[in-house]
Amino acid sequence: MEFVVDSMLGKLARHLRIFGFDTIYSADLDDDQILRLAREGRAIVTRDRRLAERAWARGLKAFLTRSTDLEQELRELVNARLVKKGELKIGARCSLCNSELLERRDRTWVCPKCGQRYWIGGHWANISKLMMRVGLLDEHQ
Ligand SMILES: [Zn+2]
User: Fold this and answer.
1) Does 138 fall in a domain?
2) 56 C-alpha vs ligand 1 centroid, how far in Å?
3) What pTM was estimated for this model as a whole?
4) What is the DSSP track for 56-91?
5) Whole-angstrom Cα distance, residue 47 to residue 117?
């Protein structure tokens, strides 16, 4: 699944990228641009009912959330089967710019586009806990 996320859901967009999903997000995208991206096969995730209705009327995939809470938004996407455990590729994408990361020999990852570096650190435990709470990771893993 590939996503285009509306400008109100930046935190969700970053987490979809952390989970490995190709996710377009920009505060500059207008509704017409978002609909165009959906026509190319992306699922829209939005808090804007009018945008969702425009998408549905065109037969496009759109998910409307009413939540303002990251964990709840993720849980809704899991329940709607838009985010599936088997499709996760943790650490495959830059959470800032959506590029695919390169793995280095010292077990760090670097973004070839924006230069951001990643490693398995303290934040990783928080991401794992969040994934467990929304049903994307089993307790014993
Ligand atoms: Zn990047």
Assistant:
1) no
2) 32
3) 0.93
4) HHTT--EEE-----HHHHHHHHHHTTSS-GGG--TT
5) 31
What would the pLDDT profile of 51-103 be if each residue is shown by its tens digit?
999 999 999 999 999 999 999 999 999 999 999 999 999 889 999 999 999 99
Asked whether residue 32 is domain-assigned, the answer is yes
**Count of domains forming the chain:** 1
Using the mean position of ligand 1's atoms as its centre, give its distance from the Cα of residue 53 in Å: 32
d(CA 60, CA 100): 26
Ligand 1 centroid to Cα of residue 2, in Å, is: 17
Residue 141 resides in a domain: no
| 64: containing domain | 3-133
Would the pLDDT of 12 be above 60?
A: yes
